[in-house]
Amino acid sequence: MKWTNSSLNRDRSQATKTPNDFRKLRQQASLKTQGRGWGTCRLCEENGDLRESHITSKFLWKVTGIIGNKRKFSATSTSHPHLSEPHRQDAFKEYLLCDRCEAQFGRYEAYARKKFFGKNSPLLNRPNQHYIWTGLDYRRLKLFQMSLLWRMGVSSHPYYAGVKLGKHEAIMRSMLHAEDPGEPWQYGCIATLLSHARKPLVAFFSQAERIQLWGHSCYRLALAGMHWFTFVSSHKPSPTACELFLNREGSWLLFHGEVFDFPYLRAQVMELRARDKAMGSQNSREDNQIS
Ligand SMILES: [Zn+2]
After folding, report:
1. Which protein residues have their CB within 5 A of the ion that is ligand 1?
2. Is residue 15 in some structural domain?
3. Backbone dihedral region for residue 225 (phi beyond 0: left; psi -120 to 50: alpha; all else: beta)
4. Centre of ligand 1 from the C-alpha of residue 151, in Å
5. What's the CA-to-centroid distance between 67 and ligand 1, angstroms?
6. Residue 102 Cα, ligand 1 centroid: separation in angstroms?
7. Full-model pTM
8. I want to staple 192 with a disulfide (CB 3.0 to 4.6 A). Which of 11, 39, 257, 281 is the partner?
9. What burial class does residue 234 get, using C-beta atoms within 10 Å of its C-beta: 0-12 exposed, 13-18 middle, 19+ buried?
């Protein structure tokens, strides 16, 4: 895991807090130890008890075998080792949402889980070439896609420090709160099913990072063996790009690609291998790694 400069900035911002802020933080920490949090729900913006939510949906971690059955994984920061989290048993969590909003996102997750990992899913029965996935519920799947990136954007966990949505954070919040999936091009996503040496690559995650693609800001990351390019732009991308997004008719073009086709992912895979080798057999046998 490479911490970016933005995560350092977040660390420094702690030093600007007033004694009153720290008193509030201590109160919140005390509540958290009792298994609950008190604060403002990031989605409905109402005050109340908050649920400790998974920032990235738990099922994406669980079905890929990174967590579950007492399995552990290590999140290792190569740039900021003190922030590494070795031997974790659960995915990253944070007090973000009230019960009602957690349940709302839970409905999208239930749908996405059924489509992604249910019978006849292209994620499990990998096609050998590009594939047009049909019969999808545009509204639920689009809201799920948007909720994933938005949660990373509002999270204060340093693993997601690379996601800074700016003015789009409020726009996405408003759309998600209203359960409005918007137009297909708004926060549309281009997806690729990843393979390695022609075998499906499922248990692979990468940190989200912002890039420019075809003149638009875009976040790229690997999640559960699927590579996502999500556009975060106020302007409509070209018709060619729009053809690649999930559309209102419920179809979505999935590309098929080798992980090494993406140079930045290739670099991460090579780094993981080198780290495993350096760690020797004792840890690498028992822990999965994410970067
Ligand atoms: Zn809420």
Report:
1. 41, 43-44, 98, 101
2. no
3. left
4. 13
5. 27
6. 7
7. 0.79
8. 257
9. exposed
Question: Structural domain of residue 177, as residue ranges?
Answer: 68-91+118-290
Res. 5: pLDDT tops 60: no
What is the mean pLDDT of the segment spanning 87-109?
87
Specify the number of domains making up the chain: 1
CA–centroid distance, residue 3 to ligand 1 (Å): 29
Decide: 253 and 241 in contact? Cβ < 8 Å. no
- Indicate the residue type of 24: K
239 occurs within a structural domain: yes
The predicted pLDDT at position 55 comes to 86
**Residue 153 domain-assigned?**
yes
Please report whether residue 59 resides in a domain.
no
Residue 69: per-residue pLDDT: 66
Predicted confidence (pLDDT) at residue 106 exceeds the cutoff of 80: yes
Distance 50 CA to ligand 1 centre (A): 8
- Could you tell me if 50 and 37 are in contact, meaning their C-beta atoms sit under 8 angstroms apart? yes
- Spacing, Cα 11 to ligand 1 middle (Å): 27
Distance 164 CA to ligand 1 centre (A): 21
Q: What is the pLDDT of residues 8-33, one digit of tens each?
A: 223 333 333 344 544 554 455 444 44
- Ligand 1 centroid to Cα of residue 13, in Å, is 26
Task: For residue 111, report the distance from its CA to the centre of ligand 1, in Å.
Answer: 20
Cα separation of the two ends of the chain: 4
